[in-house]
Amino acid sequence: MDEGIITIVPRGSKRSFRMIDPEGCRIYISQNYTSGMELEDWIEMKNCPDEVSRSEQVAKAGDSKLRYTRTFKGFLLNCYTPIEATFHGEPCVLSPLQGTSIFMQDYEYFRIPEDVVVVGIENGENFQHIRAQKYLFEGMKVLFVSRYPQSKDLCNWLKIIPNRYIHFGDIDLAGISIFLNEFYVKLGNRAVIFHSCGCEETPQGRKPAAL
Questions:
Q1: How many Cα atoms occupy the beta-carbon half-sphere of 49 within 13 Å?
Q2: DSSP states of 146-168 as a string?
């Protein structure tokens, strides 16, 4: 769960698990359980060990293309109006072209003005079309971020900075669970979840979105 691959979904007195990043799950399994092999190749080798030659096993396990040291460190960010920021102590301007985004790897050295609101986009399609969401954030300076591929990295950066965080995700049990267990628990009242009515949901109740 720390890698942002699965999340807990409460179901009354019980709970279940929901996979939210299938590709990340494949990479995690490859890193930790299959010695860098593709899952299908590993299953084939385990199920039919006599039919897979030793040379094939070595080739599969030794293929450098299948080895991963870690999924990408960092997270994606985007904006539709230029944002002045600092990176490694040097000033920079965030202004991605439409249809592109920025991958922030050294997030520990990335800072934005305190009046910029960070908006976490849960849905990949919404993240690709942030300009279509512009009317929801009129009057606000916003920086859009994606929690993939590393939700933990995004949370670590949010803990470093003082900025407000709005979680723009699904308003269902799974989406609320992600917000509470990954963001609110670490950011407290700096974090709210955005509701489609134009309100912000907090554990204390609903309030109008602040502009």
A1: 1
A2: EEEE-HHHHHHHHHHS---EEEE
Quickly tell me which residue has 């669970």 as its tokens.
177
CA-to-CA distance for 64 and 202, rounded, in angstroms?
Answer: 46
Q: Where are the domains of the chain?
A: 6-66, 75-208
Cα–Cα distances (Å) from 2 to 6, 8, 32, 44, 155, in that order, read 9, 12, 14, 29, 10
Name residue, tokens 């072209």.
97
Domain 75-208, CATH class in plain words: alpha beta
Of 2, 82, 71, the residue nearest 30 (C-alpha): 71
The pTM assigned to this predicted structure is 0.62
Per-residue pLDDT of the chain (211 residues; tens, 9 = 90+): 556 677 877 877 777 777 777 777 777 777 777 766 777 776 766 666 554 555 555 555 555 444 444 456 899 999 999 999 999 999 999 999 999 999 999 999 999 999 999 999 988 888 988 999 899 999 999 999 997 766 689 999 999 999 999 999 777 787 788 888 889 999 999 999 986 544 444 454 444 344 3
- Residue labelled with tokens 């489609």: 196
